[in-house]
């Protein structure tokens, strides 16, 4: 099963690419599906593609739930 997760945009790159970060891990992803993206925006990431922008509060709530689930599984 694959999950789409919220990540924060840390840098906009050429060719419709961007660097995103989650818990200190950075990754270069495609943002070709999105318009008007800015550094600091949160996006939903799935298999290397930013699918949509997400409200920062919603992103933080979702990340908290994911961390809680991961913590209870260990």
TrEMBL record:
Purpose: Involved in the maturation of [NiFe] hydrogenases. Involved in the biosynthesis of the Fe(CN)(2)CO cofactor.
Biological process annotations from GO: protein maturation
Record's protein name: Hydrogenase maturation factor HypC
InterPro entries: Hydgase_assmbl_chp_CS (IPR019812), Hydrogenase_HupF/HypC (IPR001109)
Highest rank taxon of the organism: Bacteria
Molecular function per GO: carbon dioxide binding; iron ion binding
Protein family: Belongs to the HupF/HypC family.
């Amino acid at each position: 099963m694959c999950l789409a997760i919220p990540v924060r945009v840390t840098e906009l790159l050429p060719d419709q690419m961007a660097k995103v970060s989650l818990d200190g891990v950075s990754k270069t992803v495609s943002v070709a599906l999105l318009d008007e993206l800015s550094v600091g925006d949160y996006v939903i990431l799935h298999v290397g593609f930013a699918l949509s922008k997400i409200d920062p509060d919603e992103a933080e709530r979702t990340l908290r739930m994911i961390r809680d689930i991961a913590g209870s599984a260990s």
